[in-house]
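User: two proteins, same treatment. go.

Assistant:
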Amino acid sequence: QVQLVESGGGLVQAGGSLRLSCAASGSIFGFNVMGWYRQAPGKQRELVATITSTGSTNVADSVKGRFTISRENAKNTVSLQMNSLKPDDTAVYYCNLKRLLQGDSWGQGTQVTVSS
Protein backbone atom coordinates (compact mmCIF):
# COMPACT_ATOMS: atom_id res chain seq x y z
CA GLN A 1 0.00 0.00 0.00
CA VAL A 2 1.58 3.23 -1.22
CA GLN A 3 0.52 6.56 0.20
CA LEU A 4 1.35 9.92 -1.38
CA VAL A 5 1.81 12.96 0.82
CA GLU A 6 1.86 16.38 -0.82
CA SER A 7 3.12 19.71 0.42
CA GLY A 8 4.01 23.17 -0.84
CA GLY A 9 0.70 24.62 -1.98
CA GLY A 10 -0.35 28.10 -1.04
CA LEU A 11 -1.24 31.60 -2.16
CA VAL A 12 1.09 33.49 -4.45
CA GLN A 13 0.92 36.59 -6.62
CA ALA A 14 1.04 36.37 -10.40
CA GLY A 15 4.62 36.05 -11.55
CA GLY A 16 5.68 34.33 -8.37
CA SER A 17 6.91 30.81 -7.72
CA LEU A 18 5.96 27.76 -5.68
CA ARG A 19 7.50 24.34 -5.29
CA LEU A 20 5.27 21.33 -4.72
CA SER A 21 6.63 18.12 -3.25
CA CYS A 22 5.19 14.63 -3.03
CA ALA A 23 6.61 11.81 -0.94
CA ALA A 24 5.59 8.20 -1.50
CA SER A 25 5.56 5.86 1.46
CA GLY A 26 6.21 2.17 1.06
CA SER A 27 8.40 0.37 -1.46
CA ILE A 28 7.98 0.91 -5.19
CA PHE A 29 9.44 -1.69 -7.55
CA GLY A 30 9.71 -1.79 -11.31
CA PHE A 31 8.87 0.78 -13.92
CA ASN A 32 6.61 3.55 -12.75
CA VAL A 33 5.47 7.05 -13.59
CA MET A 34 4.90 9.83 -11.10
CA GLY A 35 3.31 13.10 -11.97
CA TRP A 36 1.11 16.03 -11.20
CA TYR A 37 -2.46 16.70 -12.26
CA ARG A 38 -4.61 19.70 -11.49
CA GLN A 39 -8.28 20.53 -11.36
CA ALA A 40 -9.64 24.05 -11.45
CA PRO A 41 -13.17 24.93 -10.33
CA GLY A 42 -15.70 23.80 -12.91
CA LYS A 43 -13.08 22.12 -15.07
CA GLN A 44 -11.87 18.60 -15.77
CA ARG A 45 -8.75 17.23 -14.15
CA GLU A 46 -5.80 17.70 -16.48
CA LEU A 47 -2.26 16.41 -16.67
CA VAL A 48 0.43 18.92 -15.77
CA ALA A 49 3.66 16.93 -15.92
CA THR A 50 4.98 13.39 -15.50
CA ILE A 51 8.34 11.77 -14.96
CA THR A 52 9.21 8.10 -15.26
CA SER A 53 11.48 6.05 -13.03
CA THR A 54 14.03 6.24 -15.86
CA GLY A 55 13.91 10.03 -16.02
CA SER A 56 11.76 10.73 -19.07
CA THR A 57 9.51 13.76 -18.66
CA ASN A 58 6.31 14.98 -20.24
CA VAL A 59 5.02 18.49 -19.64
CA ALA A 60 1.74 20.02 -20.72
CA ASP A 61 1.97 22.74 -23.34
CA SER A 62 0.26 25.21 -21.03
CA VAL A 63 3.12 25.08 -18.52
CA LYS A 64 6.14 24.38 -20.71
CA GLY A 65 8.98 26.74 -19.96
CA ARG A 66 7.49 27.63 -16.58
CA PHE A 67 7.13 24.33 -14.68
CA THR A 68 9.82 21.73 -14.10
CA ILE A 69 9.23 18.23 -12.76
CA SER A 70 11.94 16.22 -11.02
CA ARG A 71 12.28 13.18 -8.79
CA GLU A 72 14.66 11.49 -6.42
CA ASN A 73 14.17 7.76 -6.90
CA ALA A 74 16.06 6.72 -3.78
CA LYS A 75 13.65 8.75 -1.67
CA ASN A 76 10.53 8.11 -3.75
CA THR A 77 9.81 11.79 -4.04
CA VAL A 78 8.67 13.98 -6.91
CA SER A 79 8.66 17.76 -7.07
CA LEU A 80 7.12 20.40 -9.28
CA GLN A 81 8.88 23.75 -9.50
CA MET A 82 6.37 26.33 -10.69
CA ASN A 83 7.67 29.68 -11.91
CA SER A 84 6.00 32.66 -13.57
CA LEU A 85 2.66 31.61 -12.12
CA LYS A 86 -0.53 32.89 -13.71
CA PRO A 87 -4.06 33.15 -12.32
CA ASP A 88 -5.03 30.36 -14.74
CA ASP A 89 -2.72 28.05 -12.78
CA THR A 90 -5.08 28.26 -9.81
CA ALA A 91 -6.25 24.73 -9.06
CA VAL A 92 -5.99 21.81 -6.71
CA TYR A 93 -2.83 19.93 -7.62
CA TYR A 94 -2.73 16.16 -7.17
CA CYS A 95 0.29 13.88 -7.04
CA ASN A 96 -0.12 10.63 -8.96
CA LEU A 97 1.67 7.30 -9.20
CA LYS A 98 1.12 4.78 -11.99
CA ARG A 99 2.57 1.27 -11.97
CA LEU A 100 2.26 -1.60 -14.42
CA LEU A 101 -0.81 -3.77 -13.84
CA GLN A 102 -1.79 -1.77 -10.79
CA GLY A 103 -4.30 0.95 -10.10
CA ASP A 104 -3.33 4.56 -9.67
CA SER A 105 -2.33 6.06 -6.36
CA TRP A 106 -3.31 9.65 -5.62
CA GLY A 107 -2.36 12.24 -3.08
CA GLN A 108 -4.94 14.22 -1.18
CA GLY A 109 -4.39 17.35 -3.26
CA THR A 110 -2.91 20.71 -2.39
CA GLN A 111 -4.44 24.07 -3.23
CA VAL A 112 -2.51 26.52 -5.39
CA THR A 113 -4.02 29.99 -5.68
CA VAL A 114 -2.48 32.66 -7.89
CA SER A 115 -3.79 36.18 -7.40
CA SER A 116 -3.71 39.02 -9.92
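Protein 2:
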Amino acid sequence: QVQLVESGGGLVQPGGSLRLSCAASGSIFSIKAMGWYRQAPGKERELVAAITSGGSTNYADSVKGRFTISRDNAKNTVYLQMNSLKPEDTAVYYCNADSVGPIATMRSWGQGTQVTVSS
Protein backbone atom coordinates (compact mmCIF):
# COMPACT_ATOMS: atom_id res chain seq x y z
CA GLN A 1 0.00 0.00 0.00
CA VAL A 2 1.24 3.45 -0.94
CA GLN A 3 0.12 6.65 0.75
CA LEU A 4 0.52 9.96 -1.06
CA VAL A 5 0.36 13.45 0.40
CA GLU A 6 0.38 16.50 -1.86
CA SER A 7 1.41 19.97 -0.86
CA GLY A 8 2.38 23.28 -2.42
CA GLY A 9 -0.89 24.38 -3.95
CA GLY A 10 -2.24 27.87 -3.60
CA LEU A 11 -3.20 31.07 -5.35
CA VAL A 12 -0.82 32.60 -7.87
CA GLN A 13 -1.04 35.29 -10.51
CA PRO A 14 -0.86 34.51 -14.22
CA GLY A 15 2.75 34.13 -15.27
CA GLY A 16 3.77 33.05 -11.80
CA SER A 17 5.30 29.81 -10.61
CA LEU A 18 4.37 27.13 -8.15
CA ARG A 19 6.01 23.91 -7.03
CA LEU A 20 3.92 20.94 -5.98
CA SER A 21 5.30 18.14 -3.85
CA CYS A 22 4.05 14.61 -3.36
CA ALA A 23 5.52 12.55 -0.54
CA ALA A 24 5.10 8.79 -0.77
CA SER A 25 5.10 6.34 2.10
CA GLY A 26 4.32 2.69 2.59
CA SER A 27 5.42 0.20 -0.05
CA ILE A 28 7.50 2.80 -1.84
CA PHE A 29 9.94 0.30 -3.31
CA SER A 30 7.18 -1.20 -5.42
CA ILE A 31 6.40 2.05 -7.25
CA LYS A 32 6.91 1.83 -11.00
CA ALA A 33 5.74 5.28 -12.00
CA MET A 34 4.33 8.45 -10.52
CA GLY A 35 2.44 11.29 -12.05
CA TRP A 36 0.31 14.35 -11.65
CA TYR A 37 -3.27 14.63 -12.80
CA ARG A 38 -5.59 17.58 -12.57
CA GLN A 39 -9.30 18.14 -12.65
CA ALA A 40 -10.97 21.48 -13.22
CA PRO A 41 -14.64 22.16 -12.39
CA GLY A 42 -16.85 20.56 -15.00
CA LYS A 43 -13.91 18.82 -16.66
CA GLU A 44 -12.60 15.29 -16.66
CA ARG A 45 -9.44 14.39 -14.83
CA GLU A 46 -6.45 14.55 -17.14
CA LEU A 47 -2.83 13.51 -17.01
CA VAL A 48 -0.48 16.44 -16.61
CA ALA A 49 2.90 14.74 -16.28
CA ALA A 50 4.35 11.37 -15.40
CA ILE A 51 7.73 9.92 -14.57
CA THR A 52 8.76 6.28 -14.50
CA SER A 53 11.16 4.53 -12.17
CA GLY A 54 13.68 4.71 -14.99
CA GLY A 55 13.38 8.47 -15.19
CA SER A 56 11.49 8.84 -18.46
CA THR A 57 8.86 11.56 -18.53
CA ASN A 58 5.87 12.60 -20.53
CA TYR A 59 3.67 15.68 -20.46
CA ALA A 60 0.34 16.87 -21.65
CA ASP A 61 0.68 19.08 -24.70
CA SER A 62 -0.89 21.96 -22.82
CA VAL A 63 1.94 22.09 -20.27
CA LYS A 64 4.98 21.18 -22.33
CA GLY A 65 7.73 23.71 -21.90
CA ARG A 66 6.14 25.13 -18.77
CA PHE A 67 5.91 22.24 -16.30
CA THR A 68 8.66 19.90 -15.16
CA ILE A 69 8.22 16.69 -13.21
CA SER A 70 11.10 15.36 -11.14
CA ARG A 71 11.89 12.94 -8.34
CA ASP A 72 13.98 12.92 -5.20
CA ASN A 73 14.46 9.26 -4.40
CA ALA A 74 16.14 9.98 -1.07
CA LYS A 75 13.04 11.81 0.10
CA ASN A 76 10.55 9.54 -1.68
CA THR A 77 9.05 12.64 -3.21
CA VAL A 78 7.95 13.69 -6.67
CA TYR A 79 7.69 17.33 -7.67
CA LEU A 80 5.88 19.33 -10.28
CA GLN A 81 7.49 22.65 -11.07
CA MET A 82 4.93 24.86 -12.76
CA ASN A 83 6.09 28.00 -14.53
CA SER A 84 4.32 30.56 -16.68
CA LEU A 85 1.03 29.61 -15.10
CA LYS A 86 -2.19 30.41 -16.90
CA PRO A 87 -5.77 30.69 -15.63
CA GLU A 88 -6.49 27.51 -17.59
CA ASP A 89 -4.16 25.68 -15.20
CA THR A 90 -6.59 26.22 -12.35
CA ALA A 91 -7.61 22.82 -11.02
CA VAL A 92 -7.23 20.34 -8.23
CA TYR A 93 -3.95 18.54 -8.78
CA TYR A 94 -3.70 14.90 -7.74
CA CYS A 95 -0.58 12.86 -7.23
CA ASN A 96 -0.64 9.32 -8.56
CA ALA A 97 1.55 6.29 -8.03
CA ASP A 98 1.42 3.00 -9.90
CA SER A 99 2.92 0.17 -7.91
CA VAL A 100 3.46 -3.54 -8.33
CA GLY A 101 0.93 -5.64 -6.47
CA PRO A 102 0.63 -9.38 -5.94
CA ILE A 103 -1.79 -9.71 -8.87
CA ALA A 104 -1.66 -6.53 -10.89
CA THR A 105 -0.51 -2.95 -10.87
CA MET A 106 -2.18 -0.88 -8.17
CA ARG A 107 -2.99 2.78 -8.57
CA SER A 108 -2.79 5.08 -5.56
CA TRP A 109 -4.04 8.65 -5.32
CA GLY A 110 -3.37 11.58 -3.07
CA GLN A 111 -6.12 13.79 -1.68
CA GLY A 112 -5.40 16.61 -4.09
CA THR A 113 -4.18 20.16 -3.75
CA GLN A 114 -5.90 23.22 -5.18
CA VAL A 115 -4.05 25.41 -7.65
CA THR A 116 -5.73 28.67 -8.57
CA VAL A 117 -4.25 31.01 -11.17
CA SER A 118 -5.98 34.36 -11.11
CA SER A 119 -5.25 38.06 -11.08
